[in-house]
Amino acid sequence: MQFNQKAQQVIEYLLVVVAVVGGILAIAGPLKTTVEKTLDGTVKTIYQGYTWRVGPAQTCSVTCGIGTATRSVWCEGNESSQPVGDAFCSGPKPAETVSCNAGSCGSYVWQIGTFGACQPACGAGTQTRSVVCMDVGTGPVPFSFCPGSPPLSSQPCNDGECYSWEEGAIGLCSEPCGAGTAPIDMKCKERLTGNFVAVSNCSAYPNPHPGGRIPCNTGTSCGYQWITSGWSGCDASCGPGNKHQTVQCVRVSDGQVQTNVNLCNAAQRPDDTAACNLGACYNWRLTGGWGPCSTPCDAGTQTALVQCVDRQGGVVADNLCDVASKPSSTRACPNQPVCTYSWGNDAWSTCSVNCGTGTQTRNVFCDRTFPPQTRMPNLDECRRVDPAGEPAASQPCTDYSACTYSWGAVSWGTCSTTCGSGGTQFGTVSCVRSDGVIVGDNWCPASTRPSTSQTCSSTAGCTYGWGAVSWGTCSTTCGSGGTQFGTVSCVRSDGVIVGDNWCPASTRPSTSQTCSSTAGCTYGWGAVSWGTCSTTCGSGGTQFGTVSCVRSDGVIVGDNWCPASTRPSTSQPCSNYSGCPPYSDTGCANCPFGVTTTTGSGFVVQQCTIPAGYSGAVSCAFAWQWGVWVSGSHCYGSAVGNVTWKIKPPGSACP
Question: Beta-carbon neighbour count of residue 493 at 10 Å?
Fold first, then answer.
């Protein structure tokens, strides 16, 4: 069984806003609305076609300096140019009181007070002072009137430590003599009051005696000395031997021998063993006479045989005698005649160079005139008797016969620029002989003289700093929350890009940052937010709504970003039964919403159509009606838009 609902009619209308302005009824015209999303996510309706208007500011409250002035602010319709209530204008209302500057009041100076006491009084603290910008003629004014940055009004301070360790009573020394330790009472003193406080207050400061003990009796001695028994006899009958004695450490006060020999001064300990000698067992003897002299004249030497013999005169091995006392086996010859010598030399050789200063040499020799001997193997004898007469074996010589001349390397001065290229550098050049001597410029050809000026560059005065970051593409193409990477270079003060090691790493700018982009965004109209239906009971009403242009990242933007051709309608027909009065009837004859009548084989059904949203108490009573009875027939009735079926038992009639 099917039931048809009555179609609803759509009625469009213009909502006319009635505003009372200054007691006069004004028609503001069609009311346009839009929706704006606030920072906290709230969606509110904005009336379009109205603008805040601001009148001129009145006279400044002061004649000089910073003051205030008032102005008129009202909401006005764009088409009617009539003032309306403030609720019709969107955005914050402009301020009705503004600041004004009536010009300088005179001279402005910083008035600075003195720093106060450090707070807290000890330890790390802060001290403050007053800082005021003063108009010399009127008094305090805002800081912006005074030149430069405001002086500091506070600074850190440290007025010394709050507590310190103090030495108290010292106990008995652990040793009666010699170095020991004694207990000491360490106290904690409050610096500001001078009172002693709990030692826990000084726990943050180094304790000069953390163990609670100090050295004592460090300048006294217990008195210990070494004593000896006296030397024994030599343990050898001849030659070297040893003698011995006993050495002991005793305490002076009672002569008690100490087993701890460290109590006596080790540096003063006497020897307990010493060398002795009762006479040599073997002696050296010169055997035979001296031999012939080694030279015919002047000083010569003679040799003899030296042997080691025992006490009976027998020859023994040399190592049995004292090697250190062995007599010399050579001596100078006595009564020698005097030798005479004279110097001789050959002719000079040719000069060693043919350009410049060189050397020429000759042979120098020594002749003995008595006894005669020419060209002796060495010159020592002539140098001994006639050192001043020795002929020179070499002398300087000059020869310029094969010299050539050329320009030397240019000696360049300082570059005229200290950072970068484009400077000029001047130099000097000399004419150089082939032996390296600098001569007059006229010796070298002027045509080959090198230039003494040139372009140059220098980095001696350059400074280095990080350039601007060159940013790459944002990682997101629509919206915020993206990351952007960049590159940065170290730039010399002449604009040349250099290696990063020239710039301080501590000042290198970051090469990554958060970013946003709209390059890849798309735009579309959001869902319409519908308002209240214009009717409160029944159909035929009109419902207005608002719609926003939404970017693909969810941000609401201006309507101009979305195509006007696809903008959804913001009005539609509507029905509303929320204001209808309660309805109740014992039948469907007076149903205000329309009655649907359905006929069939042997039955008639009437149904009162109940609109969706109707809140009244609707009751449409029904009565059983007669039908044609066939196998499986039933009795039926309708109420409140529904059919209720009653099964007829066989042989019974409908009620």
Answer: 14
Tokens for 137, please give them: 């003629």
Q: Report the distance separating Cα 392 and Cα 383, nearest Å.
A: 13
* Nearest Cα to Cα of residue 19 among 74, 89, 84: 84
Burial 171-195 (b: 16+ CB within 10 A, else e): eebeeeeeebbebbebebbeeeeee
Residue 37 is predicted with a pLDDT of 44
How far apart are alpha carbons 117 and 433 in whole angstroms? 82
Per the listing, tokens 């020394």 go with 173
pTM assigned to the model: 0.30
Do 380 and 388 meet the contact criterion of CB atoms below 8 Å apart?
no
Whether residue 572 contacts residue 559, with contact meaning beta carbons closer than 8 Å, is answered with no
What phi and psi values does residue 525 have, to the nearest 5 degrees? -80, 135
Query: How do residues 567-591 score in pLDDT, each as one tens digit?
Result: 999 899 988 777 766 555 445 555 6
User: Residue 107 pLDDT > 60, yes or no?
Assistant: yes
Interacting residues of 359 by C-beta distance below 8 A, sequence separation 6+ = 351, 352, 394, 395, 396, 397
Tokens of 548: 């926003």
Each residue of 171-214: pLDDT tens digit? 888 776 667 788 988 899 887 788 888 888 888 888 888 888 88
Q: Is 487 exposed, middle or buried (0-12, 13-18, 19+ CB in 10 A)?
A: exposed
Q: Is the pLDDT of residue 425 over 90?
A: yes
Q: Which of 276, 271, 278 is nearest to 245 (CA)?
A: 271
Query: Bridge-partner residues for 487, per DSSP?
Result: 470
Structure tokens belonging to residue 280: 């040599």
Contact (CB, 8 A) for 394 and 361: yes
Q: What is the mean pLDDT of residues 302-314?
A: 87
Q: Please determine, for residue 24, whether its predicted confidence score (pLDDT) is greater than 80.
A: no
CA 207, 212, 218, 224 dihedral sign is negative
Structure confidence at residue 500 as a pLDDT band (50, 70, 90):
very high
Beta-strand pair 154-158/139-141:
unpaired
Q: What is the pLDDT of residues 217-267, one digit of tens each?
A: 666 667 788 888 888 888 887 778 898 999 999 877 667 888 888 888 888
Q: 431-433 and 438-439: which strand pairing? A: antiparallel
C-alpha span between 296 and 294 (Å, rounded): 7
pLDDT tens-digit map of 357-380: 999 999 999 998 888 888 888 898
Give the start-end residues of each E strand in 60-153: 66-70, 73-77, 83-84, 97-101, 108-112, 124-128, 131-135, 139-141
- 253 sits in the region (left: phi over 0; alpha: psi -120 to 50; else beta) called alpha
SS3 630: coil
341 vs 362: CA distance, rounded Å:
20
Q: What is the 3-state secondary structure (H, E, C) of 328-368?
A: CCEEECCCCCCCEEEEEECCCCCCCCCCEEEEEECCEEEEE
Identify the pLDDT of residue 394.
Answer: 95
Alpha-carbon distance of 539 to 108, in angstroms, equals 76
Residue 266: phi and psi, rounded to 5, are: -65, -30
Q: Cis omega (within 30 of 0) on the bond before 120? A: yes
The tokens of 231 are what?
Answer: 């030397």
